[in-house]
Specification:
One of its GO terms (biological process) is phosphate ion transmembrane transport. One of its GO terms (molecular function) is ATP hydrolysis activity. α4 packs parallel to α7 and α5 crosses α7. The strands form 2 sheets. This protein has a 6-stranded mixed beta sheet with strand order 6-7-8-3-9-10, sandwiched between helices. It is an alpha/beta fold and about 270 residues long. β9 and β10 form a beta hairpin. The longest helix is centred in the middle third of the chain and has 14 residues. The protein contains 11 helices and 10 strands. It has a domain of about 190 residues: P-loop containing nucleotide triphosphate hydrolases (Rossmann fold, 3-Layer(aba) Sandwich). The protein binds adenosine-5'-triphosphate. The site of adenosine-5'-triphosphate has 13 residues, from β2 and α2.
């Protein structure tokens, strides 16, 4: 029963996955492992994430999706006792090399979290925060960046008349789009999204999913989601992880309709997880 429902919905939504053929690789993991102390949470993952596509990471709770996602801009560095082996290649360099400037890396690889983490500041100041840190002081220039970022995050029309209002007064869905605008304001190339809709209602979720559809033209997006329907709707490629291992990675439609690995099939048909 579960199998039938899953397949039906996925067939409806996954059409754009057809063009998921990869051309240029943007990030490449090579035998990459991430440890919390002695525990290997991500195990020797090798994958090539294509440029300007949406890649979804799915798998049961605790399989290492978020850890792998956070490895891409070294957010795990903030957790004591983490260490990495193997390589995560971005722009020809292993980002775990000692000479990598992590601040620059995180400007190029932005992140949006599960719960919108707006600052208790005005809508304008939330979006201008990163550019100001990067040294942009000119008011006109800042205004242009803020407007463009809010437009790109599909929220300009809702907030253009109240840019000085406190961002905490916005709805959860608006706050999440504001966080996306804030991430876009520093002009990243890659956007990491860690379950960006799990705290949102279906209407707000649909808006974020539409937005992902638009952003994929200009950004490489990697999204962790618990929701397989969402992965099927928004992504070009899907990675299925289990117990830290990358079990299968391929075009979304193929993975959901005709997976290579029996473990993937068991998961997407609801037999476990
Ligand atoms: N800060 C941490 N310290 C120690 N172990 C951790 C830490 N964060 C995660 N882990 C462990 O690493 C493994 C992978 O966790 P991770 O959060 O990456 O999985 P996930 O697939 O994203 O899970 P979920 O879907 O529940 O968010 C789990 O066994 C988890 O308990």
């Amino acid at each position: 029963m579960t199998e039938e429902i899953t397949m039906k919905k996925i067939d409806t939504f996954a059409e754009h996955g057809d063009d998921g053929a990869t051309n240029e690789t943007h990030i490449e993991a090579k035998d990459f492992s991430l440890f919390y102390g002695d525990f290997e949470a991500v195990r020797k993952v090798s994958m090539e994430i294509p440029k300007q596509k949406v890649t979804a990471m799915i798998g049961p709770s605790g399989c290492g999706k978020s850890t792998l996602l956070r490895s891409i801009n070294r957010m795990n560095d903030l957790i004591p006792s983490t260490s990495a082996t193997g390589e995560m290649i971005f722009d020809g360099h292993n980002i775990y090399n000692k000479n990598i400037d992590v601040v620059t890396l995180r400007a190029r690889v932005g992140m949006v979290f599960q719960k919108p983490n707006v600052f208790p500041k005005s809508i304008f100041d939330n979006v201008a925060y990163g550019p100001r840190l990067q040294g942009t002081k000119n008011k006109q220039e800042l205004s242009e960046i803020v407007e463009q970022s809010l437009r790109n995050a599909a929220i300009w029309d809702e907030v253009k008349d109240r840019l000085t209002a406190n961002a905490l007064g916005m709805s959860g869905g608006q706050q999440q789009r504001l966080c996306i605008a804030r991430a876009l304001a520093i002009k990243p190339e890659i956007l990491l999204m860690d379950e960006p809709t799990s705290a949102l209602d279906p209407k707000a979720t649909a808006k974020i999913e539409d937005l992902i559809g638009e952003l994929r033209n200009n950004y490489t997006i990697i999204i962790v989601t618990h929701n397989m329907q969402q992965a099927a709707r928004v992504s070009d490629l899907t990675a299925f992880m289990y117990e830290g291992v990358l079990v299968e990675f391929g075009k979304t439609k193929q993975l959901f309709t005709n997976p290579d690995n029996p473990q993937t099939e068991n998961y997407i048909t609801g037999r476990f997880g």
